[in-house]
Amino acid sequence: MQLSYSMREQFARYHARTQRWAVLVCHRRSGKTTATVNDLILKACRPGRPDARYAFIAPYFSQAKDIAWGFVKKYSEPLWSGEPNETELRVDFINGARIRLYGADNPDRLRGLGFDGVVCDEFADWRSGVWDEVVRPTLLDRQGFATFIGTPKGKNEFYETYQRAKEDDRWFRMLLKGSDSNLIPLEEMEHLKATMDSDAYNQEIECSFEASLKGSYYSEEMERGYREGRIGRVPVERTSKVHTAWDLGYSDSTAIWFIQAIGKERRLVDYYEASGVGFDHYAKVLNEKGYVYGDHYFPFDVQAKMLGMDQDRITTLKRLGIEVSVVPQGNIQDGINAVRSLLGAAWIDEARCEKGIECLKAYRKTWDDRKKVWADKPLHDWASHGADALRTFATGFINKHNIEPNYNRNYRPSPLGWQGA
């Protein structure tokens, strides 16, 4: 039986891989979706398991339909046992195998399923925790494989996955830049470079994880922090109190910043993030760090009661030794401006706050595709947790101490700061 897929030589190594895990960092229009869809089809053709199940999972179900459904139908048609299911985005093969499309935006739809292989598309846009808590368990009993594909969008879980693959022989990895792939004509490459924003070009075409994200709220403040040497090694002053600021996650991550306020100086000395655990876990983390704590700033929704809990959250936290300072709900843009003011003069420990720094760099506006403009509201993704936690601190600290916010983005702090003490 002849399939219509004509493999690009750039993906030959991928199709011939022997590793269970794979990560493909590829430039736009490289053909990564076509290659990974056909990899699922080729795997589904193999004899052996009559009920083989494969999944292509995009960040959103609608995105899976728009991007991959046409390819699945086109290339698998000779193998159909019947017409594709357009509602479920499912194709059943004559040998009993099945390929189905899903969205990571509805993880409950994936719970309890089992797969022989999955493709995790645009993994940089997935909600934190969906892979570890939902998709990874679907591969256990069948010992299924997984391929992660996408284009960089900062140093998020996709970046961490690629870095892990570089250190582990059990992973297949591929980095396909536009300048190396020979898939984009030279004339077109030159035109793209001349007309695209440099950060966008480096990210989308050259697969740079270092490029600033378009629409980022804090890119200017973070870049200044690096230029002025305020992001690097920052000591914890053991005689000064450490304040914490929280963003509470329920189906996703909880984030905590650890901050010292010494005179007019703000030091972001530590950061922690986790998901799927209770308040007792975070209380243990705070105790193990051994800091002398000041205020613990929580967003207003800490006051809400959760179903199934014998006592409210504030009571639970107090029992664990965490006295809650509730930050009232305020205007989001005012909070973002407060964070800009804070970051314009803050010192940030680059090692202990690594994940938090990446959150701040990647926190960005929502793109309105209909109007082709950046909407004046934040995009809720993996970066939101760390950014929202710092907004909780900036707003709460200003309110508690009656500080006049300084939203002047041209403000320059003392060049020595703590180093001049």
Short description:
The chain has about 425 residues and is an alpha/beta fold. It is built from 14 helices and 16 strands. The protein starts with 11 loop residues before the first helix and ends in a 21-residue tail after the last helix.
Sheet with the most strands, sense and barrel status: 7 strands, mixed
Spell the H/E element sequence. Answer: HEHEHEEEHEHEHHHHEEEEHEHEHEHEEH
What portion of residues belong to β-strands?
15-25%
Q: Write down the overall geometry.
A: globular
Brief descriptors of the model:
single chain; 421 residues; alpha/beta; Rossmann fold; Nucleotidyltransferase, domain 5; 2 domains; seven-stranded mixed beta sheet; 14 helices; 32% helix; 21% strand
Q: What does this molecule look like?
A:
There is one protein chain. With 421 residues, the protein is an alpha/beta fold. It folds into two domains: 9-204, 3-Layer(aba) Sandwich (Rossmann fold); 219-420, Nucleotidyltransferase, domain 5 (2-Layer Sandwich), CATH 3.30.420. The protein is built from 14 helices and 16 strands. The strands form three sheets. The chain has a seven-stranded mixed β-sheet, with helices on both faces.
Produce the secondary structure layout.
Blueprint: H1 12-15, E1 21-26, H2 32-44, E2 53-58, H3 61-76, E3 90-92, E4 98-103, E5 117-120, H4 130-135, E6 145-150, H5 157-167, E7 171-176, H6 178-181, H7 186-195, H8 198-204, H9 219-227, E8 231-232, E9 242-247, E10 254-262, E11 265-274, H10 279-289, E12 293-299, H11 313-319, E13 324-327, H12 332-343, E14 347-349, H13 354-362, E15 365-368, E16 373-378, H14 384-400
Helix pairs in contact: 2-3, 12-14, 13-14
